[in-house]
Amino acid sequence: GVPAVGAKGARQQRGFVKKIKKNLEETSGGDSAQGKKKGRSWDPSAGNGKADKSLDRCTDRPEDAPGESLEERAQHLGTGKSDVDNWEIESDDEDSASKSKSKGMWDKLKLLAGGSRELSHDDLSPVLEQFKDLLISKNVASECADKLCTSVGSSLEGKTISGYNGVKNAVKAAMEEGLIRILTPKQDMDIVRQVKVSQAKKQPYVIVFVGVNGVGKSTSLSKVCFWLKSQKFKVMLAACDTFRSGAVEQLKTHAARLDVPVFEKGYNKDAASIALDSVKYAAQMGFDVVLVDTAGRMQDNEPLMRSLSKLVNLNNPDLVLFVGEALVGNDSIDQVTKFNKALKETAYGSGEPRLIDGILLTKFDTIDDKVGAAVSMVYVTGQPVVLVGVGQTYTDLKKLNAKNIVKLLLR
Can you tell me the distance from the alpha carbon of 40 to that of 281, in angstroms, rounded to the nearest whole number? Predict the structure, then answer.
């Protein structure tokens, strides 16, 4: 049995428990004012510029983001390193469930087994239908999946193959080739190299971030800023979201964490003029890159789209990045198509209208293998996915690897 505790032993136990409680209270700080977390403030301090007073709207960089401790600030920096390499899939090995599902899909097509013959529409239709369903299940917009399968079918009709495996392999190979062709940029998208070219000309490289509401433009801009700053470029942010309350203060908070300046003139001002002045200021002060934040807007809001078109066409930036979510499927086509159409229809000036140059997809880490939005947006715009956001910290930015995306889509 358990030995009884005497009166002296009981007093010692009670004293020991009291001591532990006291130590815990001292460690946690209780509910004292000192132990409470400070509320975040959206009011960073401003400093003095050294350029032309008429252009100097650039705030200095406070040592810490307002209302944040060094520990809180460090959370946004992730590993502290920004190596924007290719986004990789974890493994090419399929689990038994995936293999079983894949086997079941193709078992339905065993009727196609046989000798050598020319492929006909009837031979290809059941295989293409299965691929179409697979692509749609991975978030490819149905319109894109349908057109891609039609194109693959047309390219294969009349070709000679052998048996069931020949049909499957021919369709899969053609599908892979078509998807990689869609996702591969048709022009140079090496931003670092392009910045160095502008740097040699002593001109700032200007990137404008556009997109619908709530997709994470400011956060994505900050990730790009951290990456370019880690490449030893001198970066400045331009606060051209003069529409949404708190947008300028939010950008200043990001700037404080990143230790970069913000060019701003407050709210209810002409965003195009602010962007133009920010580029002039950047050229005077020797900045290598200007990242322009704009107001989120729905593609059918004509006044805001006209304002954005004016900003883009008046400033003629080096790169216009559309920021969209990787979570959307059919909505991605509607968003990016109408956005480009609105930019074209509300074009400012008499020259050729500037449209979207590239795409940055956010929340790419949340979609598992449902990566089809990338295909849909690229298919519609003809412009590549330049970067993808894969987490919450500034270091969570990757380049898109077309071959890896295709593997995920077709497995």
Answer: 30
Reading the block at residue 274, the tokens are: 């602010």
Dig out the tokens for 55 from the structure. Answer: 């252009």
Q: What is the sign of the dihedral through the CA atoms of 260, 85, 219 and 311?
A: positive
173-204 pLDDT, tens per residue? 999 999 999 998 888 789 999 999 999 999 99
**Which residues, in sequence order, are CB contacts of 128 under 8 Å at separation 6+?**
149, 152, 153, 171
CA distance 120 to 111: 14
Contact 328, 215 (CB under 8 A): no
The encoded tokens of residue 93 equal 């090995």
Which are the contacts of 374, defined by CB distance < 8 A and separation ≥ 6? 183, 326, 359, 361, 385, 388, 400, 405
Given a cut of 90, whether residue 152 has pLDDT beyond it is yes
- Biggest alpha carbon–alpha carbon distance for the chain: 98
Q: Strands (DSSP E) along 43-114, which ranges?
A: 58-59
Alpha helices (runs of H) in 160-301, residue ranges in sequence order: 163-183, 191-200, 217-230, 247-258, 271-285
Angle of CA points 180, 172, 177, to nearest 5°: 20
What pLDDT, on a 0 to 100 scale, did the predictor assign at position 31?
Answer: 46
